[in-house]
Amino acid sequence: MERGSPESFTRMGTLGVEEECFVVDETGRPTSGTDELVYEHDPPAILEERLDHELFKFVIETQTPLIEEPDDARDALLEIRRALSEHAHAHGYQIAAAGLHPLAKWRELEHAEKPRYRSQLDRIQYPQHRNTTAGVHVHVGVDDADKAVWIANELRWYVPIILALSANSPYWNGFDTGLESARAKIFEALPNTGMPTYFEDYEAFDRFERRMLETDSIADRGELWYDVRPHTAHGTVELRTPDGQADPDVVLAFVEYAHALVEALAAEYEDGATGRAPDHRRELLDENKWRAIRHGHDASFIDRDLEGTISLGELVDRECERLGIDGIKRVYERESGAERQRRLLETTGPDALCESLLLGVE
What we know:
Elements: E1 15-24, H1 34-40, E2 51-53, E3 59-63, H2 73-90, E4 94-96, H3 115-124, H4 126-129, E5 136-141, H5 145-155, H6 159-166, E6 171-172, E7 175-176, H7 182-187, E8 193-194, H8 202-214, E9 225-226, E10 228-231, E11 236-239, H9 248-270, H10 282-295, E12 300-302, E13 309-311, H11 312-323, H12 327-333, H13 337-347, H14 350-356
Parallel strand pairs: 8-9
Antiparallel strand pairs: 1-3, 1-4, 1-5, 2-3, 5-11, 6-7, 10-11, 12-13
Helix pairs in contact: 2-9, 5-9, 6-10, 9-12, 11-12, 13-14
């Protein structure tokens, strides 16, 4: 039973980005290709030990190398994306990205044979059988285990902001769900997902993780699929909430925001702040997340002080000024991913929609 350790938390502010993407054919439609790309052909050197697949044979995952400085994030992300795209093209495939592929129908697609996923399918059944989701995970290094748990607690309130900005999955199983991020709702059907509860310190989180393992509630610690979590192996806080994105600039905006949030919260912790997390009931955080799922860029949220509501636009302005960032402002001011998908399907059809989801590498 592999366990994490508080000793993993040694470095502050490093970054890592995981992206889940779709293997598609020459027309941009989902197709099984991960066996060839992951197992049957050697990937480019930069992807060695950084390329894997997910539950379905059309969902592939990459990881950047450890990013020492935020300014290096763009080059690291684009290098991985280019390598993946070139690897796919060399074997007759393309790569696309969104929270859900709008033309993916789960009953028509193959599941992977990896024992871990076969076990999950047997144990979880229907919710996992239909799980065609793809997201972005941002890791930020934290140099103390208790600090990491405190930061993860505080980050829960910010999860819906990031989800609303990233909303890029209006279609699931071939129909319009009426949601801006159907991925988030599909994924929440799995156990141990969604908004986590509050943990008093690292010992409390470790006790929970251990109990889940010892009671066979999870097969490994990676099955704690919450929207934000302290990663007890990597020594990071991991934000797992954004929908997948074709445009690297959108991903990099979330990387910038996540890094700035973690650094700011770390400073608060070091100054002895008590934080707001103890007052943030999970039910209220779930309400904010629902607003992000349903309304995307048009969402408003219960504010951090719980005294009223605030629009996403106001929040973005406030956060950019507070943290000295601008990426999420540009994301907010552009057409959302969900809006773009609907517009393209309605005005130009499925071919243009599929083309728009191809992975950007510049």
